[in-house]
Amino acid sequence: MPLILCHSPKGGVGTSFIAAQLAIHLAQRGHDVSALDFTYQDSLKLYFGLTPAQNLPELNDGSAEQIAVSGVALFSAYGLQHDAAFRDLLDRPDHSPFARKKIFIADVAAGDRETKDMLLPHAVLHICPMHPRPGSLAALPKVEPGTATIDLVKTGFVLNHLDDAHRLSRHTHIFLRELLGSKLLGTVRRDEAVNEASAMFEPLARFAPASVALNDLRKLVIAVEQAAGLVEAPEETAS
Amino acid sequence: MRSDAESLLARLGRRDFRYREFADSFADMELWPIFEALLTDPRVVGRPLSKLEAREAEAVLAVRRAEPEQSAMRSPSATVTSMFDAYQDAPPPAAERGNLRDFLGHLSNDPNKRDY
């Protein structure tokens, strides 16, 4: 079953936040979801309301006690990228460790291209979060070197931290909507409640149920379901 | 309805509003140099532009660069027109319709309709 890979060539754009929220919202919509933290920073769990001291079980440690928050099973997978058995599984032509009736959301750090390249062939969808800032825009050519950004077939973009009160932010949204078309899966507005919820060790939905970001995430997850083939695309209505 | 708008209306006790969200119009976008750089980067938009397309692109971008000055001289009626254009449904994204040329053509369409 599907692997959804969350990776951006630019760090600090909210990849872990988007990965966590996608996992939570997919679980809310009835999917069986596991979230895999492939990062050294180990910060995915913060968006589930866990503390830095709470260790996630290793994905390949069957004896470890499982942790599930907001309907999502959480695993650390940082050690897996150098695990020979895991790499061997990925290299097998007719087999994938993700071929189970479960959705895996992988959070991969910006600088860890090796893990991203290792997982991408197994992913049904690559989510590339962006910020409406020059550094993030300038990284667009680096999403998948060798393939033009607008020609990427597996990649969907999410414009995070959108702020309509700022001119460049508004214009970046319009620009990306035109440039990327349906590959821009959604936008998530900037909301300080996201940081406050993490600082309180609470899931966003519990800390700030009226958060504008939550509203955007609900729309985003529907677009992700369709882009990843988790649901049938809605039939087009005759005009 | 956006949850923040819904909670605001609930707090105000107002039930007689019609709620609608408006997408920003393409005409509202300024062509920042970083957008230009991406539009002419083959790593982003694919094959390099032909000489003819490059000339067309440069002409379109030059017009767009000069437009803020033009907009200061707009007639009042043009301003009203552009104001309402900003509330029309967003046009289909250029990338879905084909290619960079469409996008650049989109940029050059009817500059009087822009609202800076």
TrEMBL record, chain A:
<dbReference type="InterPro" id="IPR002586">
    <property type="entry name" value="CobQ/CobB/MinD/ParA_Nub-bd_dom"/>
</dbReference>
<dbReference type="Pfam" id="PF01656">
    <property type="entry name" value="CbiA"/>
</dbReference>
<feature type="domain" description="CobQ/CobB/MinD/ParA nucleotide binding">
    <location>
        <begin position="7"/>
        <end position="201"/>
    </location>
</feature>
<dbReference type="InterPro" id="IPR027417">
    <property type="entry name" value="P-loop_NTPase"/>
</dbReference>
<protein>
    <submittedName>
        <fullName>Cellulose biosynthesis protein BcsQ</fullName>
    </submittedName>
</protein>
From TrEMBL, chain B:
<protein>
    <submittedName>
        <fullName>Uncharacterized protein</fullName>
    </submittedName>
</protein>
<feature type="region of interest" description="Disordered">
    <location>
        <begin position="88"/>
        <end position="116"/>
    </location>
</feature>
